[in-house]
Amino acid sequence: MHTTLLGVLGLALLGALHAQDSVPVQTDFQQDKLTGRWYSIGLASNSNWFKEKKHLMKMCTTVISVTADGNLEVTSTYPKGDQCEKRNSLYTKTEQPGRFSYSNPRWGSKHDIRVVETNYEEYALVATQISKSTGSSTMVLLYSRTKELSPERLERFTQFSREQGLTDEEILILPQTDKCMADAA
Predict the structure, then answer these.
(1) How confident is the model at residue 49 (pLDDT cuts 50, 70, 90)?
(2) Which residues form the Lipocalin/cytosolic fatty-acid binding domain (predicted)?
């Protein structure tokens, strides 16, 4: 029984690793074109924090800039109660263009971030595999240069999220808000 359980766990881990390896990265990724201001339009995740906070989430702004050493500085500003909260993250580039890593010591998590597809001027679809000592989760973000996207782009986000194993209950088109939008310039 113990051997069977270990075998099943091993196969599950192998499957999770294979699934992440099959997540594509934008062909001919051009990092400098990803910089600037984006709106978070969609968010999908199977993490516990998402399930707990989903009903409170609203659209936020994210500003991406390139650091002197070629990494990405990612600053998100989002409404939290009566406040506007800012979160800064440093995405470290990897050998594969369009793929980044990020570690959050506060939460004890490691993030494998991939820019799946973008046309740089309209939208960007980003997939993240998050690993913690308590397990792993998947997150998919849909960014837009404007507060609205075409139904086709929203459907592509939903379809891609489902392909990552996320259910409809784990996929959210973020409600629009004007709160905290001006603070993110």
Answers:
(1) confident
(2) 35-178
Beta strands (DSSP E) in the chain are 36-45, 60-66, 72-80, 83-93, 99-104, 109-118, 123-132, 135-144, 171-173
Range 86-92 average pLDDT:
95
Phi, psi of 180 (to 5 degrees): 70, 5
Catalytic-role residue among 59, 60, 180, 181:
60
Residue 60 annotated as catalytic: yes
CA distance 175 to 58: 5
65-81 pLDDT tens trace: 999 999 999 999 988 88
CB 61 within 8 A of CB 182: no
Q: Does the residue 14 lie in any domain?
A: no
- Specify the residue for token string 């979160």: 87
Distance of CA 72 to the CA centre of its chain: 14
Total domains, the chain: 1
Does 6 map to a domain? no
CATH code for the domain in which residue 93 is found: 2.40.128.20
